[in-house]
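Researcher: Let's do a round of design. I'm pasting the structure tokens now; please hold your answer until I've finished.
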């Protein structure tokens, strides 16, 4: 086929929820009847807004453009709206950007990592999650994952006496009256407590910083004593504790030799990372709430983080991600692209393309795909021996079953699928 005359004929979006996770997929059809590309635009908190941005704004703007002009399409889409740097537009652009890289790989008959310069490694080491409400259960989960070949495990535990903890199974207890655990709850501002019939993407609950850090330190101590030091342990704070407590926590966990401590502070508190760097050597990962590449550059330049933890679709796709990675390489900051369960399989495939190509790759978060999700997206990256492996197919190496996608429409959820607020005992909201 001629590479010079292929144009964008149409852009479609698919909104599907195969395993209780809302996904947004973009498909670009070209002037070549059999040539198309797919991209990830998933923003689970505001998926319909992303679809609107694609359908009503990017689609009419891009129809007729050459599929070869990926850089110019990204730049013009980013600035022409006068509405930039936000997660809605960035995810919309990401869907287009990834689909164009998929098309270019198919036209060249090579995987995207070859388009970027080829592989720097055979496969990408991945980490998975182990969590529970009990120490022994987390321990058993970690052992099970190690037996399956994983070497890197993120560990989380529920806080005794509290109803909600990010990244862990919910406690079964209701309200705690034990003031030695934490302040007594007085709030009635928890919707899930008022109406248990509502469906929440992430149910609200009570969180208190001090009990959380105590239970987490206890978990680290337990796992190092019971399992040992021969596996890599990770943990996600998810920006939920006061900054000065975060500084103290980073110092306290230093002795447990974490592979990294994630999202210690919110983006509004980036300067606190400088204090942490001056006081301890705990490796720091950050970035999934960053939208603008310009937010990231100072953090890399000043070596305030050790792992670039951005969500690729949230900063606009492969085109900006590869540039950010290149900056990281110059400052010895490694990549750790965001890749939880609410990342589309196409997003995982896009992550893998850069994981294989980037010299400064660090680790890749991996979500073991549920049955329907794996079936809907043929080509989902395979995991063996704790590594994500490419399938060697042209482009991103993945597709979407459109007929199957139509059978799993979005379910009605509270707040349109957004998380409900987690609160402290007095009713005040907890970040993020």
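Researcher: That's everything. Go ahead.
Model: Designed sequence:
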């Amino acid at each position: 086929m001629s590479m010079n005359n292929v144009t964008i004929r149409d852009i479609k979006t698919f909104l599907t929820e195969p395993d209780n996770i809302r996904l947004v997929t973009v498909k670009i059809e070209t002037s070549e009847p059999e040539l198309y590309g797919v991209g990830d635009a998933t923003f689970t908190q505001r998926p319909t807004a992303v679809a609107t941005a694609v359908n009503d704004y990017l689609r009419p703007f891009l129809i007729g453009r050459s599929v070869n002009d990926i850089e110019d399409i990204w730049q013009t889409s980013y600035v022409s709206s006068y509405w930039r740097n936000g997660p809605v537009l960035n995810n919309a652009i990401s869907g287009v950007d990834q689909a164009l890289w998929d098309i270019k790989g198919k036209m060249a008959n090579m995987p995207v990592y070859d388009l970027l310069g080829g592989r720097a490694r055979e496969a990408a080491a991945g980490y998975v999650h182990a969590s529970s409400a009990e120490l022994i259960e987390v321990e058993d989960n970690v052992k099970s994952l190690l037996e399956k070949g994983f070497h890197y495990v993120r560990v989380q535990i529920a806080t005794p006496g509290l109803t909600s903890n990010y990244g862990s199974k919910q406690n079964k207890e209701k309200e705690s009256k034990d003031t030695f655990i934490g302040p007594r709850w007085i709030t009635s501002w928890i919707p899930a407590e008022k109406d248990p019939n509502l469906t929440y993407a992430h149910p609200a609950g009570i969180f208190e910083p001090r009990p959380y850090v105590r239970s987490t330190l206890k978990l680290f101590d337990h796992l190092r004593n019971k399992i040992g030091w021969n596996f890599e342990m990770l943990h996600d704070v998810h920006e939920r504790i006061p900054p000065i407590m975060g500084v103290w926590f980073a110092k306290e966990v230093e002795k447990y030799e974490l592979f990294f401590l994630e999202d210690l502070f919110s983006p509004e508190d980036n300067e606190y990372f400088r204090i942490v760097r001056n006081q301890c050597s705990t490796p720091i990962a950050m970035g999934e709430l960053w939208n603008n590449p310009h937010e990231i550059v100072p953090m890399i330049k000043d070596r305030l983080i050790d792992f670039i933890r951005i969500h690729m679709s949230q900063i606009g796709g492969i085109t900006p991600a590869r540039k950010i990675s290149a900056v990281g390489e110059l400052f010895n900051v490694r990549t750790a692209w965001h890749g939880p369960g609410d990342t589309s399989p196409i997003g995982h495939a896009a992550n893998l393309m850069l994981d294989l190509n980037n010299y400064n790759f660090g680790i890749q978060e991996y979500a073991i795909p549920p049955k329907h999700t794996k079936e809907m997206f043929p080509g989902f990256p395979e995991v063996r021996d704790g590594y994500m492996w490419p399938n060697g197919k042209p482009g991103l190496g993945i597709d979407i079953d459109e007929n199957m996608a139509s059978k799993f429409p979005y379910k009605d959820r509270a707040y349109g699928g957004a998380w409900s607020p987690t609160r402290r005992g007095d009713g005040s909201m907890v970040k993020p």
